[in-house]
Specification:
CATH topology of the largest domain: FAD/NAD(P)-binding domain
Number of strands: 21
Order of helices and strands: EHEHEEEHEEHEEEHEEEEEEEEHEEEH
Helix content: 25-40%
Shape: globular
Radius of gyration: 21 Å
Structural class: alpha+beta
Number of helices: 7
Distance between the termini: 37 Å
Largest sheet: 8 strands, mixed
CATH class of the largest domain: Alpha Beta
Strand content: 25-35%
Number of domains: 3
CATH architecture of the largest domain: 3-Layer(bba) Sandwich
């Protein structure tokens, strides 16, 4: 490998690392992206569902309008660049499963903040959700990685933290000299020696790809589990949620059985169901459900861009811009995502 000097060395080729790398390149920054394609990641599995109102209490995501506008514009721009559609708008039918959810819906129906997102239907137990859809995460990552390789800024490698040498004005890893290194390692960030003090709460999720002779639903179906018919003919069902330690990325027969049992309880009729594929990934969730952005309090060249959990496809485009403005213009990060909210031991 030849010697190379860059503004940023980015570690991690999932959605966070790849979109941050792309945005840095658009801003004229010299970057080098490293990741091991054989290492499993949540981005390789994710259905990429974008949904601004979630949970049993039907909570509207903070700053939802800005987040949605940013991610739609971002993915449409990428689609135009690659002449491929990555983002697909698709309304969601949310089925109220119990009294708790029904009470939450009554509260939200009286709140004008939710008018643009939730709509009642003829069935009192069903809500129509707007501004939902999904990102074809795998197709987007494939295109981005091919582009990075073409530009000569991608390297398939495994980062060993003891290979990093830190100096007053830069860091060095093998043949790369960089002003900063940004870790976008997903749930494995909890093992990073500089950022392990951050309270990650990773959660394993498994999903199924199905085949059926029935006509697939035109809406995303949400009954606690979700069912998504994609543009390329897949029918995806997910996702389980497992926080039991130690976590692994192996598929399990228990998860398959659980998902298929829940599918039978969905208020739709599907015939000749066949499981085509089962996948597992670990979401990089955090204790306070907010991402981790910022630089190490003692080693200022070491940064982190992580912790987007299951909402990465909606959150990452906006926060990539916020993070780059923080680096380039010294704009303060929002306190809710700045890692300074936690004390480094």
């Amino acid at each position: 490998m030849h010697e190379k000097t860059v503004d940023m060395l980015i570690v991690g080729g999932g959605l966070a690392g790849s979109l941050l790398a792309w945005q840095c390149i658009q801003q004229g920054k010299k970057i080098h992206l490293i990741f091991d394609p054989k290492t499993p990641s949540a981005s390789k599995v994710a259905a990429g569902i974008i949904n601004p109102v979630t949970g049993q209490r039907l909570v509207l995501q903070n700053n939802a309008r800005t987040l949605l506008n940013t991610c739609k514009s971002y993915y449409q721009s990428l689609g135009a660049h690659f002449n491929t559609t990555f983002f697909f708008e698709k309304p969601m039918l949310r089925y109220l499963r119990n009294a708790k959810e029904a009470v939450a819906w009554e509260k939200r129906r009286a709140n004008p903040d939710y008018d643009d997102y939730l709509e009642e239907t003829d069935d009192p137990k069903v809500i129509l959700q707007h501004h939902t859809g999904y990102l074809d995460t795998q197709a987007l990552l494939c295109k981005l990685h091919h582009e990075f390789k073409h530009q000569g800024v991608l390297e398939h490698a495994t980062m060993q933290c003891d290979e990093i040498d830190m100096y007053a004005s830069h860091i060095r890893w093998r043949h790369i000299t960089a002003q900063r290194i940004i870790f976008c390692e997903g749930w494995r960030g909890q093992n990073n020696p500089w950022f392990r003090y951050l309270p990650f709460q990773p959660a394993k999720g498994e999903i199924l790809d199905l085949k059926t002779s029935s006509i697939s639903p035109e809406y995303i179906i949400n009954c606690g589990r979700w069912l998504l018919a994609t543009h390329d003919g897949r029918l995806r069902l997910g996702a389980t949620y497992d926080v039991q330690q130690p976590l692994n990325e192996w598929i399990s027969p228990q998860a398959k059985d659980t998902l298929l049992a829940d599918l039978k309880d969905m208020p739709i009729s599907l015939e000749d169901i066949e499981v085509v594929q089962q996948q597992a990934g670990i979401r990089p969730n955090t204790l306070d459900k907010q991402p981790f952005l910022g630089f190490h309090p003692k080693h200022h060249a070491l940064g982190i861009f992580n912790g987007f959990g299951s909402k990465g496809s909606m959150l990452i485009p906006y926060y990539a811009g916020v993070f780059i403005e923080h680096i380039q213009q010294q704009k303060l990060l929002p306190k809710s995502v700045d890692i300074q909210r936690f004390t480094c031991a």
